[in-house]
Amino acid sequence: MIEIHSHILPGIDDGSKTIDESIEIIKNAIDNGVTDIILTPHYIVGSDYMVNNADKKKLLTKLKTRLKKENIDINLYLGNEVFVENNMPELIDNNEITTINNSKYLLFELPMNYSFNGLDNVIFDLRNKGYYPIIAHPERYAFLKENPKLIEDLIDKGALFQGNIGSFIGSYGKRTKEVALLYIKHNIYTFIGTDTHHTNNPFYNSIEEVKQLLKKYISEDEIKNLFINNALKVINDEVIDIPNYTNLKKGLFGKWK
């Protein structure tokens, strides 16, 4: 697996607090077949989570130095999970936030419990400036759990989506799991990540379990794209096509299918 979403850059958000904790998480990831990790600390304007790129790079260098000293072989890349803002391109230009490995791909998240007005404009602005927006864990947002079909319009406007492993094992509740599987069936996702924060998160240990679950709905080649190939394209700043999703529909009794 190539991990596209993690919070293991120590001490700068609600993820790992120390380098030692980061090392333990990385060891667990390696034990479960992870070869590369993109570190995506939160960046939330107006909060304590506003560490700029220069300081993030210093922390990454410290972490890499420890890994080399302990002969731990893993590829690490820097990114951010930005809480959605209208001025994200400016934050990139001002060296406050970073795309994934300095590519054209930017990972960001939406509010959990309310809709963000102007999301269409955010996506349009990013695409117009040459960036590819990746929206983290859409299955967790209230407005999409209520009406999963709304995601189709966001895809049509150019957004890509990353699902969380924890969503498929029920870590965020029954409804989130239902929406995650619905999105798998309709080819909504481009990536699967863990969103790992701490050593007690079960997500790396659940990689194979989730792959077996997804085999019920999609091919092994599609699973490889979600877990490895598409993330590798991001790291290498290669173009990823917008998924050819199938339309969501409501059944006779109001259940999405």
User: Which structural class is indicated by helix and strand composition?
Assistant: alpha/beta
pLDDT < 50 runs, ≥5 residues: none
Q: What is the total number of structural domains?
A: 1
Q: How much of the polypeptide forms β-strand, as a percent range?
A: 5-15%
**Helicity range:** 25-40%
**Radius of gyration, Cα only, in angstroms?**
17 Å
- The SSE string, one letter per element, is EHEEHEEHEHEHHEHHEHH
CATH class annotation: Alpha Beta
Instruction: Give the end-to-end Cα distance, rounded to a whole number of Å.
Output: 29 Å
Mean model confidence by pLDDT: 96
What's the tally of helices?
A: 10
Main pleated-sheet profile: 6 strands, parallel
CATH architecture: Alpha-Beta Barrel
**CATH H level, superfamily name:** Metal-dependent hydrolases
Shape: globular
Q: Can you count the beta strands?
A: 9
Quick tags:
single chain; 257 residues; alpha/beta; TIM Barrel; six-stranded parallel sheet; three-stranded parallel sheet; 10 helices; 9 strands; 38% helix; 13% strand; globular
Structure report:
With about 260 residues, the protein is α/β, with parallel strands linked by helices. It has one domain: TIM Barrel. The chain is about 40% helix and about 15% strand. The chain has 10 helices and 9 strands. Strands 3-5-6-7-8-9 form a 6-stranded parallel beta sheet. The chain has a 3-stranded parallel beta sheet with strand order 1-2-4. The longest helix has 17 residues, at about 55-70. The protein is globular, with a radius of gyration of 17 Å. It starts with a strand and ends in a 22-residue tail after the last helix. The model has no long low-confidence stretch (mean pLDDT about 95).
